[in-house]
Every structure is written in C-alpha cells, then in structure tokens.
C-alpha cells in the first residue's frame, strides 16, 4: 500500500527537521541537525549503560569495537568529523544507528564510551556503501576514524557478519528512528554532559594535522576526478 499524502508530508517535514534532504543539509548550518540529535541519543545510552555496569546490574562482554581508553574526541565532534571528511549523506547516520542497535541486540553486548566511536564510524561506513552513490575505500575511512586500515577492515567484517549481511531497512523502520531522534530535540536542553574517566591503554583513536591534510587532499582529488568524468560524458 502506498503511503498517504499526509504520511508523505509528515515524512518530508521530519526529514527536513533532521537535515536529511540535500537542500537542507547544504544550507547555512555547517552540519545537519541529525548529528547533534544522534550524539545526544548515543550519549544517553552510553551513560545509562555505564551506570548499570558500575552498579553490577549488567555484565558486559568485550567486543572487537572496544578500545583500551576513552577517545578524547566527544561523540558529537566525532560524528561531525565523519560527516565532514567521509562526505556521506545525512541519512547514513540514521541508517548507521539502526545497524548499531541491531548489533547491540546480541547477549551481553552494550555500548559504552570505550566502544561507541568505533561502532559509529563502522556503521556509518557500511551505510554509506549500501545507500550512497559514491564512497571511499577503507584506507581513507580509517584515517577519518582515527584507526588503521586493518582495523577498519576487521570492524566492518565483524559488523556485517553480526548483521548477517541484512542491510536493507524498510521505510517504516527508518521513519520510526527519525521520529525517535526528533524526540531527542525536545529533551536536548535537559541533557547533561557525561563525564567519563579515561583508562590507561595503548589502543586509541589517532588524529593529527597530517592525517587531516591527507583527508582534505583526497577529497580535492576526488572532486577533480568527478569533474573530469562529467566533462567526458
């Protein structure tokens, strides 16, 4: 059954609100609203899980997504970094959230400050490869995410196998997650920043000026290549 005109109008309003449309995401705001709302949602989940783990109400299994220390970059800044350099569509962040929550349905798997960043970059990368017209290789995505190419490959494969390669999401599910993120906007002003204590370790996300310059150079090269191809068509 085709969606009603009212439903279609509601969907468009929701997508505009989150900055999922091309016209909205290209406006004055540097980043679409979905990044801020997604970050707030993930922060809340992380805080809740760490409270439960701290009180021994739940037990956690360590996964491939766990680092040994908490990254210095906040979830919000990390999401903005991914959007800036990965050049993926804003919808990839909604789809990525769906993949993350499907992954977290496994027994004793919880998202914490040690795993949320790697889960985010991997889920968004998988989403970009699935729905966007163009995407980069994992060597580039690794630089964006502050991890090695080898680790990026391993994280992607683990997520894909955990999802049983079922990446298709129906419209109703996508719509429900958009509405869920919109609700975050109502509670955003009440949110308090979470404070987490970094642990000692050697496995951490790595960012520096040379990596950022390499990402910028790759974006410029990709842009010129696309223009050259369009000129030949």
From TrEMBL:
Classification via Pfam families: Cyclin
GO biological process, any: cell division
Signal peptide extent: none
Matches recorded under InterPro entries: Cyclin-like_sf, Cyclin_PHO80-like
Keyword annotations from UniProtKB, A to Z: Cell cycle, Cell division
A GO MF term: protein kinase binding
Entry-linked SUPFAM superfamilies: Cyclin-like
Family: Belongs to the cyclin family. Cyclin U/P subfamily.
PANTHER family according to UniProt: PROTEIN CNPPD1 (PTHR15615:SF108), PTHR15615
The protein, known as: Cyclin
Taxonomic lineage from the root: Eukaryota, Viridiplantae, Streptophyta, Embryophyta, Tracheophyta
């Amino acid at each position: 059954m085709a969606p009603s005109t009212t439903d279609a109008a509601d969907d468009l309003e929701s997508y505009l609100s989150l900055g999922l449309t091309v016209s909205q995401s290209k406006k004055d705001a540097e980043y679409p609203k979905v990044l801020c709302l997604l970050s707030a949602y993930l922060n809340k989940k992380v805080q809740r899980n760490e409270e439960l783990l701290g009180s021994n109400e739940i037990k956690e299994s360590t996964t491939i997504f766990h680092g040994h220390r908490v990254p210095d970059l906040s979830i919000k800044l990390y999401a903005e970094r991914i959007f800036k350099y990965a050049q993926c569509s804003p919808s990839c962040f909604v789809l990525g959230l769906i993949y993350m929550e499907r992954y977290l349905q496994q027994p004793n798997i919880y998202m914490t400050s040690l795993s949320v960043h790697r889960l985010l970059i991997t889920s968004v990368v998988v989403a970009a490869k699935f729905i966007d017209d163009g995407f980069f290789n994992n060597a580039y995505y690794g630089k964006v995410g502050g991890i090695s190419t080898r680790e990026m490959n391993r994280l992607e494969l683990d997520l894909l196998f955990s999802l049983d390669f079922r990446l298709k999401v129906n419209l109703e599910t996508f719509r429900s997650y958009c509405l869920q993120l919109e609700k975050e906007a109502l509670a955003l002003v009440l949110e308090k920043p979470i404070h987490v204590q970094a642990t000692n370790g050697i496995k951490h996300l790595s960012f520096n000026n040379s990596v950022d310059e390499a990402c910028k150079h790759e974006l410029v090269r990709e842009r010129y290549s696309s223009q050259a191809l369009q000129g030949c068509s």
